[in-house]
Design goal:
seven-stranded antiparallel β-sheet, 22 strands
């Protein structure tokens, strides 16, 4: 009986102790919540950043994070105050850290540190957790410096013509070579889609979620620099240790959650700006982008922070390097490179042994690099590539000549220093002897006559391009055209590189389908494919076969289709002067039963990076009643 009484007393003691402990915790939690309300922390700009809240047009907030496990409150995605109070309560959890779970202080480590800075937690009443998994991850990264990486757009993929941005975390005392072994933070759409057009469509329409990932940087360099052949700019940023720690803690917190992903705004560039704004609380670079976040513009916005840029480094792609190497060879040597790569001649052929050892070494090295480029591009005969590569390396090693291939020059204009992607144009138009004032608005991004510096050569991408015209004679204002998508890729072919040229544009424009003075607005889908040839460094000519689909109620079944050739040229007479000539002929089926022709000559003089003057003449219409249009306009480019 005595033993039973003692046991009962001990149990009662521990129960009372536990209840007392919880009462103390609840009391301290109430104090923290009360203090947070006094400070209005749930409305603090930094709390809204940490939870990725955006103000709703009708009032209130909604987080752009889709994952339920990112929030501690049931209503956390739309209620910043409820989420803050639930987060504070979660910090009192006694959950032990394992490989499969984390204590909330570690799971939401970015929030914990910021709330601790604001409320000054009493470690005796709110015991801090060790967060060993995070500390182990942090030590493996050994962060010293943050570098923003900007791979250029690639010319033949609509999903990546804008370029991409990611972050590299550099260790102390790394060289340019050892930085390849750093870790990178990347944000991308969650998809395995390989078709660029489908990816672009779903990305525009919000068909994917986005997620952050952390991986070795050399994997990304291989993907962008070698396999996708993109030039890369690296921007070493002046973030201090405190700011780097903030960035990494938040990266840990959002590492396994899904965001809404949209190609134009909530994309890789926008999310990286959010990380920078969290690293340095006084920054608000992401806040300036409400409709479009183009990589070139976002990098430019980040670099506007005073003193943030330490150094910019250019890494040419595999293709850029090969093209530059080939320029140092004469015509005969280039032919030898091509024949070696295609195994048409042996490495000991007399035409090669007649060259000096140094020139032969350059030919061997260039041929080897070209073969590796083909391999990275997915050339089908891997055995042949391996055999030829080995023969070239063996022959090169026997020469024992030290030669240094010329490095590609650093571009005078970085990718972030090109013209602003938004454009406003105002001009005068003489439309078949009628005086017209025209206003054009384009949110994004670049066309063939825009200043080319800082943009992918031969690539045109226009989205939501709107043209408004006021007819001074008729005293009427109307929409003349609204192009939803207008993408063109005209990359010159040569004997080494043979890209396909193509185009696709979708929108609404006025077509001469009847005899009315004001042409009716029709839906238009135009696509084409063909080739572009480089005649000189400044002159390219192209030929495409175009197909056009028109939609209007006047057609049977509301549709009509046409097909025909599209020929043209792009001539960059000077850095500031570009000429565009284009001629299209489309033969339409019985529903329209006409041959439509369109001949255009346009030239643009770039006044400076952010403004240009454009003069254009066009003769268009049914082949038996074409009409002339002449326009003179001024274009402003906005970052």
């Amino acid at each position: 009986m005595y033993l039973l009484t003692r046991l009962t007393q001990r149990i009662l003691f521990f129960v009372l102790l536990s209840l007392s402990s919880h009462a103390v915790a609840d009391s301290y939690l109430d104090q923290l919540v009360s203090r947070a309300k006094q400070l209005n922390l749930h409305q603090h700009a930094y709390w809204l950043k940490l939870l990725h809240y955006k103000a709703n047009s009708y009032g209130g907030y909604t987080s752009e994070v889709l994952s339920r496990n990112f929030f501690t409150s049931e209503h956390g995605r739309t209620n910043p105050e409820a989420e803050l109070e639930a987060t504070l309560a979660a910090f009192f959890s006694d959950i032990k850290e394992t490989d499969k779970q984390q204590n909330p202080q570690c799971r939401y480590i970015s929030r914990y540190h910021w709330l601790n800075e604001q409320l000054h937690f009493d470690n005796n009443r709110l015991k801090p957790q060790l967060c060993q998994r995070y500390q182990s991850w942090y030590k493996s990264i050994k962060p010293h410096q943050i570098t923003m990486i900007f791979p250029a757009g690639t010319d033949n993929s609509p999903s990546s013509m804008f370029g991409h941005t990611l972050i590299r975390i550099d260790r102390k005392n790394q060289t340019e070579r050892t930085r390849l072994f750093s870790y990178s933070i990347n944000y991308a759409a969650e998809t395995e889609e390989t078709n660029g057009l489908i990816f672009a469509y779903k990305g525009i329409m919000g068909g994917y979620s986005g997620r952050f990932s952390i991986m070795p940087y050399y994997e990304k360099v291989n993907q962008y620099n070698q396999m996708e052949n993109r030039d890369i700019w690296e921007y070493q940023l002046n973030f201090n240790k405190t700011e780097i720690d903030r960035l990494l803690r938040h990266s840990w917190e959002i590492g396994q959650v899904d965001f809404a992903y949209y190609f134009f705004l909530e994309n890789c560039s926008y999310r990286l700006l959010e990380l920078f704004d969290i690293a340095r609380p006084e920054m608000n670079s992401a806040g300036s982008f409400n409709w479009f976040a183009i990589p070139g513009d976002t990098v430019y916005a980040a670099l506007q922070e005073q003193g943030i840029l330490n150094k910019a480094i250019y890494r040419p792609s595999h293709r850029t390097r090969i093209k530059h190497f080939l320029k140092s060879l004469d015509e005969t040597e280039q032919e030898l490179v091509l024949k070696l790569a295609e195994s048409e001649i042996a490495v000991d052929a007399s035409v090669l042994t007649s060259l000096s050892k140094s020139r032969r070494a350059i030919v061997f090295e260039t041929a080897y690099d070209y073969i590796q480029y083909q391999h990275n591009r997915g050339a089908p005969d891997r055995n042949k590539i391996a055999k030829t590569s080995y023969a070239l390396l063996k022959a090169r090693s026997k020469l024992k000549e030290t030669v240094k291939l010329p490095e590609p020059p650093v571009p005078e204009v970085r990718l972030d220093q090109g013209h602003g992607s938004s454009r406003i144009a105002l001009g005068y138009v003489n439309d078949n002897h009628r005086d017209v004032i025209e206003l054009k608005l384009r949110p994004a991004y670049h066309d063939m006559l825009d200043p080319s510096a800082g943009y992918t050569e031969g690539a045109q991408i226009n989205f939501f391009d709107l043209s408004l015209r006021h007819d001074l004679d008729l005293e009427k204002t109307r929409i003349d055209a609204f192009r939803l998508i207008d993408i063109v890729s005209l990359v010159g072919r040569d004997k080494f590189f043979k890209p396909i040229s193509w185009k696709v544009n979708v929108g609404f424009e006025r077509w001469p389908i009847n005899n009315e003075i004001v042409k009716p607005m029709v839906f238009s889908l135009n696509a084409g494919g063909g080739m572009t040839f480089t005649l000189t460094d400044s002159l390219k000519v192209f030929g495409l076969i175009d197909v056009t689909l028109l939609g209007h109620e006047q057609f049977e079944n509301n549709l009509t289709a046409g097909i025909g050739p599209n020929l043209g040229a792009i001539w960059e007479l000077k850095d500031s002067w570009r000429l565009w000539a284009n001629s299209r002929v489309q033969r339409f089926d019985k529903h329209l039963d006409l041959t439509y022709v369109e001949h255009t000559i346009a030239q643009s003089f770039n006044w400076n990076r952010d403004s240009s003057v454009r003069l254009e003449w066009q003769r268009s219409g049914p082949n038996h009643q074409t009409k002339d249009t002449v326009s003179l306009s001024w274009h402003w480019y906005l970052k």
